């Protein structure tokens, strides 16, 4: 996996530089989920594909921007990635990210062995999780390893996603209960910076629920939800849906979405209590 970490670091430097100068206009094309594509989405997708498939250890890739996975003859790992997450934030110059899930043999959660994300913020940062959650920042010359990321028992941040008028009454009550307990709203609309902030501050809750207009949630299992579920668990937190632990769920189609709750232990216990979580499915 060291080879994959090095490749992600190289992609981070190249994409961070492209984000400074490249055209971020919309193209006439849409991706598999029907989202309009930006020129930079397509560029990032190709860059990461070429980099990953160029590694001896990588056998295949799939991404939010591709209809199907691409395989080659040899290799051990499969990489599922969202090349640029949060592209609707470009025009307002907010932070965006790239997300990676690393699998063996098949894109199934039981085979998920690592996950990573890049944050393109005022500084370039990268998180890579296998057994522990490593945190790096780029000083312009090299990647500097920072202390490992570990969540505390609870935090102070509440990051509730989705269109509020389409939330269920139960979800609305849950979000309000966190505010009533003193939690502060921190939500940029970029999954990477929003979840990164909770990890760095040591705790909190991020939710993207099932809504009346998106009954299966918005966020994609392979490209967004599973990698962060892996990272949150390795950091000592949890990631659940109302059906149980996210990493016990199945992904039938590459572009499936799901509702999701990521957080430190205390917040997730409150989510379970509020949403009638089925312990048998844990
Ligand atoms: P994208 O892949 O089209 O950028 O959408 C994913 C993003 C996530 O980064 C973020 O958590 C979510 O969409 C925000 O959605 P909303 O604006 O509905 O809260
Ligand atoms: Mg995305």
TrEMBL record:
<keyword id="KW-0460">Magnesium</keyword>
<keyword id="KW-0378">Hydrolase</keyword>
<feature type="domain" description="Fructose-1-6-bisphosphatase class I N-terminal">
    <location>
        <begin position="3"/>
        <end position="139"/>
    </location>
</feature>
<dbReference type="Pfam" id="PF00316">
    <property type="entry name" value="FBPase"/>
</dbReference>
<dbReference type="GO" id="GO:0030388">
    <property type="term" value="P:fructose 1,6-bisphosphate metabolic process"/>
</dbReference>
<feature type="binding site">
    <location>
        <position position="84"/>
    </location>
    <ligand>
        <name>Mg(2+) 1</name>
    </ligand>
</feature>
<dbReference type="GO" id="GO:0006002">
    <property type="term" value="P:fructose 6-phosphate metabolic process"/>
</dbReference>
<feature type="binding site">
    <location>
        <position position="218"/>
    </location>
    <ligand>
        <name>substrate</name>
    </ligand>
</feature>
<dbReference type="GO" id="GO:0042132">
    <property type="term" value="F:fructose 1,6-bisphosphate 1-phosphatase activity"/>
</dbReference>
<keyword id="KW-0119">Carbohydrate metabolism</keyword>
<dbReference type="InterPro" id="IPR028343">
    <property type="entry name" value="FBPtase"/>
</dbReference>
<dbReference type="GO" id="GO:0005986">
    <property type="term" value="P:sucrose biosynthetic process"/>
</dbReference>
<dbReference type="InterPro" id="IPR033391">
    <property type="entry name" value="FBPase_N"/>
</dbReference>
<feature type="binding site">
    <location>
        <position position="85"/>
    </location>
    <ligand>
        <name>Mg(2+) 2</name>
    </ligand>
</feature>
<keyword id="KW-0963">Cytoplasm</keyword>
<feature type="binding site">
    <location>
        <position position="224"/>
    </location>
    <ligand>
        <name>Mg(2+) 2</name>
    </ligand>
</feature>
<dbReference type="GO" id="GO:0000287">
    <property type="term" value="F:magnesium ion binding"/>
</dbReference>
<feature type="domain" description="Fructose-1-6-bisphosphatase class 1 C-terminal">
    <location>
        <begin position="152"/>
        <end position="274"/>
    </location>
</feature>
<dbReference type="Pfam" id="PF18913">
    <property type="entry name" value="FBPase_C"/>
</dbReference>
<dbReference type="InterPro" id="IPR044015">
    <property type="entry name" value="FBPase_C_dom"/>
</dbReference>
<dbReference type="GO" id="GO:0005829">
    <property type="term" value="C:cytosol"/>
</dbReference>
<protein>
    <recommendedName>
        <fullName>Fructose-1,6-bisphosphatase class 1</fullName>
        <ecNumber>3.1.3.11</ecNumber>
    </recommendedName>
</protein>
<keyword id="KW-0479">Metal-binding</keyword>
<dbReference type="GO" id="GO:0006000">
    <property type="term" value="P:fructose metabolic process"/>
</dbReference>
<feature type="binding site">
    <location>
        <position position="64"/>
    </location>
    <ligand>
        <name>Mg(2+) 1</name>
    </ligand>
</feature>
<feature type="binding site">
    <location>
        <position position="82"/>
    </location>
    <ligand>
        <name>Mg(2+) 2</name>
    </ligand>
</feature>
<comment type="pathway">
    <text>Carbohydrate biosynthesis.</text>
</comment>
<feature type="binding site">
    <location>
        <begin position="85"/>
        <end position="88"/>
    </location>
    <ligand>
        <name>substrate</name>
    </ligand>
</feature>
<feature type="binding site">
    <location>
        <position position="187"/>
    </location>
    <ligand>
        <name>substrate</name>
    </ligand>
</feature>
<comment type="subunit">
    <text>Homotetramer.</text>
</comment>
<dbReference type="GO" id="GO:0006094">
    <property type="term" value="P:gluconeogenesis"/>
</dbReference>
<dbReference type="InterPro" id="IPR023079">
    <property type="entry name" value="SBPase"/>
</dbReference>
<dbReference type="InterPro" id="IPR000146">
    <property type="entry name" value="FBPase_class-1"/>
</dbReference>
<feature type="binding site">
    <location>
        <position position="82"/>
    </location>
    <ligand>
        <name>Mg(2+) 1</name>
    </ligand>
</feature>
<comment type="similarity">
    <text>Belongs to the FBPase class 1 family.</text>
</comment>
